[in-house]
Structure formats: C-alpha cells, structure tokens
Amino acid sequence: MKTILNITFFLFLIFFNTLVLAKENHYSNQKPSKTTSYSINLTQEEKEWLKKHPVIKIGIDDKWAPIEFVDQKGVYQGLAADYYQKLEEILGVKFEVNTPKKNWADILESVEKRELDLISCAVSTKPREKYATFTKPFLVFPLSIVTQNNVNYIRNLNEIGDKKVVVVKNYASAYYIKKHHPTLKLMEVDNIEKALFQLSIGEAYCYVGILPSVSYYIKKLGYSHLKFSGEIETTYDLAIGVRNDWPELVSILNKALDTIPLQEQNEFYNKWIQLTYVKPIFEEYLMYGVMFLVLFIFMILYKYLLNKKYSDLLEEKNKELEKISFIDTLTKIYNRRKIEHIFHKEKLRKGRVDFELIVVMIDIDFFKNVNDTYGHKIGDNVLIEFAELLSSNIRKTDYIGRYGGEEFLLLCPDTDINGAKKLVENLLNIISTHQFTDQKLHLTASFGVTALKTQESEEDTIIRADKALYISKEAGRDRMTLL
User: Fold this and answer.
1) How many Å apart are CA 143 and CA 316, to the nearest integer?
2) C-alpha to C-alpha distance for 222 and 193, rounded to whole angstroms
3) pLDDT (tens digit, 9 = 90+) per residue, 188-211?
4) Beta-carbon-side half-sphere exposure of residue 79 (alpha carbons within 13 Å)
5) What sign results for the dihedral spanned by CA atoms 467, 343, 270, 140?
6) What is the residue extent of each domain of the chain?
7) CATH for 336-482?
8) In the beta sheet, which residues pair with residue 393?
C-alpha cells in the first residue's frame, strides 16, 4: 500500500508540473500590458542629480530565484528585476547589473568600496548601515525553517539546541541568528543551493531562509525529502541599499517606489511567486502524451490518496500558506499586501456606494533608537505591543496593517474627518501613556490623516497621508496632521 501511494504521489507531481508548464506557456504568449505614464514629484536638485548619474551600478545575488537571478542567457530576472525595470522607466536612468560571478559577500564588499552603487535587494543591518543607506522596504517575507522530513514542527530556534544550522554567508538571516541566538552552531556557505545540499546530506539540521526562494530551489534540485518545519517571528524586510555618500538617491528611489501602482506590483508578485515552478525535463513534443498517460494512471489509483490523514494535512498546510500570505509574521496583524488589497476593495465599494474613507499613516517616533539602545529583540516586542494597542483601540469596522518597519496603515471606512480626529487623539493619548515591554519604555507616535477623494487613486491618497505624517514629524512628533 505504501509503495503504491508513493508511486501515485510521484505521478501526481509529474501531472501537476506538466499542467503548470502549459499554464506558463499560455501566460508567456500573452501580450504585455500597455505602457503607463508615471508622475513623480522630484525636486529640481533631484532632477539635476539624475542627469549627472545616468548609469547606476547595482550588485545582485545571481542565485536567489525567484527574487533575483541571472538566467542561462545572462539576463537579470526575477521579482526584484521587474521592479528595477519599472524604476528605469520612471526615472529615465540605466541600472547596470553586476554580471560577473561573485558571491554575496563579494557584492557587499564592492558596494562598501563604492565599486558598485546599490545593493539590489537586502535587509538593513548594522554592518551594512556603515556604508549604505536603505530605502523603505518594498518586499516583505517571513523567515522559514527547513529540515528533512523526519523532523517534527519547530516552534522557534531555541528548540534546535546544539544542532547545526546552515545559512548563506552574509545574508541577513545569518546576522539575525548571530545576534539573537549566538549559541547556535552555524555553517555558512556561499549560496542557497550549497546550503540546501548540506541539509539534504545531513551535514546540517536545518536551514533558515525566505519561503519563495527555498520553495523554488527545493523543486529545482529535486529535494523531496526536505520540508518546511517552522517559522521565525521576524520578517525579511527587503529594501534597496544605496552607498551612503548618495543621500539624494535614497529620496529619489523612495518616491519612485511609491509611484508604482499597486496593480503592477501585484502583477510582479503573481508572476514570480504564485507561478514559481521548475520546468520538467521532458521535451515539449512529449508533454501532452505524458499528461494523458499520467492522468489515466492517476484516475485508477486516486482512491489511495483519499486517506483522511493526507486530506487533513493538505488542508492544514493550505491554511498555513493562506495565513502567511496576508498576516505579518511578527505583529500578527495584516501585512502590507493585504492592507493595500483591502484599500483597493474599499475604493471600489466607494465607487458603488458613496461613503467617507479615512486613511491614516502611523509611524513610531525615534524607533531606531530603541533598536540601537536595547537591541532588535526589544524592538520586536515594542512593535508587537504597538500593534496590539492599535488593534484593541479602533472600531471593529476599521482595518490596521503593518506597512513596513515601524510604519502602520489604518483604514477607517464610514467615518468623517472629525470622527477620525477623535479616534487619533485617543490613540495618541493611549500610546504616550503606555509603558512598552519589561523596559517600561515611554514612546510616542506621529500620524498623517487624510480622506480618499472621488476618482483618486490609492497611490495618491497614500502619498498625501505620508506627506501629512512627514509634516507631523517635522513639527515635533507625537501629533497628527490633517490633509
């Protein structure tokens, strides 16, 4: 029975892979969407800066699919690559990709020496902040723990004990483990393929990395004996690292990233994450023959896959993946993608039924000082408590999500500016009088408040709320600004 089930499951994977390939071919033959014109509000100084720097050299991780990689033809591909292509269109500059074979440590060193201008897609860490300034995050993923199939669920890294953890050298995941779990035994390798190989042969107990990339390489390398066994309660907030003698470019890139419409960002994400696959080894002329053969065999043996144990496990994993897709791993509130999706749906509803929709951008004042003084663990606890304060002191009809780092986005449908003002005043008072974590820290927050206008895009509303937040910061913090 067990052998039959294994054979059936293998045939099912072949069948599924074949269908995905057909679907990919369908999408690859579709015509690209029409070119969109973008309006970006740059200062005269920023425009002059771009004219003086028409080519900007970026360092990439060429073995980090589907986030970014170099294909067999030497072309820069992946989710981050689509963002850079769009940034070129918006800013009118050329991002020159570093193509020579270098590992990640060499890339970071080249940026530090200013042989390269940008770190394409990375987490801001203290060592990197010595030579680079980071934009706001534009991609956020949870960190996952990967093991062999015979390992039970791992709730946190403390359960690993004296076993060996493999990571990619100079990845932010390695920095995080060294800082927060210094007693763990680390094996550092050059790239994710080497890391998963060490795990597959039993030289390491687990690997720590982001879900999309791990999933891609497990499929590519055929490591069916590896699985996801847990998560770490921190997120991979990916931003662009800019050499720290170019502060103008940080502001320019932040504005350009804000200009990319949510719909296009979703297209990038869906293209590389939801349709990530490894192309089967069969030649195209065999594809349909194999598909029908496997389907016929599968129909005969499918009843063996209806065992309740496997059905329950599949349902459980689907729920976990669904939760990961819209919940921020650290704070347990909506993540940026989900809160932006809700904003889009509310805007569509406003088009059918006229109502007031208030948008509030929130930022914890001087949060960087908390991390620098007390460490990232205390900083994480502050973010968790802050999210709980917001969630428990807004209406049941309001929506709150973590927008990135210490920024949060609050949506208040069916209320007006006066109602939102009272709500924010109450939140300001609650936050300023709260004692955060065991350190009993007193913190404040700044708020930017605005209302969605008729026929206005979500991006324009967010930009106005962000501007209101900036005014609150400039005016002394611990306050709100209405625009």
Assistant:
1) 19
2) 11
3) 999 999 999 999 999 999 999 998
4) 26
5) positive
6) 2-26+280-326, 142-237, 336-482
7) 3.30.70.270
8) none
Q: What is the CA radius of gyration of the chain?
A: 24
- Is pTM beyond 0.85? Reply is no
- Strands 185-189 and 164-168, by their bridges, are parallel
Backbone angles phi, psi at 29, to 5 degrees: -90, -10
Unique residue bearing structure tokens 């598909």: 291
Give one DSSP letter per residue of 225-271, joined into a string.
TEEEEEEEEEEEEEEEEEETT-HHHHHHHHHHHHHS-HHHHHHHHII
The pair of three-digit structure tokens given for residue 261, joined into one six-digit string: 């419409």
Give the count of beta carbons closer than 10 Å to the beta carbon of residue 325: 14
- 131-155, pLDDT tens digit by residue? 999 999 999 998 999 999 999 999 8
Tokens representing 107 are 């890339």
* Beta bridge pairs of residue 435: 442
Which pair of structure tokens corresponds to residue 74? 């030497």
Whether 231 sits among the annotated catalytic residues: the reply is no
Among residues 288, 337, 262, 223, which one has the least CA distance to residue 86? 262
**What amino acid is encoded at 32 in this protein?**
P
**Active-site residue identified among 406, 425, 458, 474:** 406
Asked if the model's pLDDT at residue 12 lies above 70, the reply is no
Residue 39 has pLDDT above 90, yes or no: no
Tokens of 306: 């209806």
Which CATH code, of 3.40.640.10, 3.30.70.270, 3.40.50.2300, 3.40.190.10, is assigned to 142-237?
A: 3.40.190.10
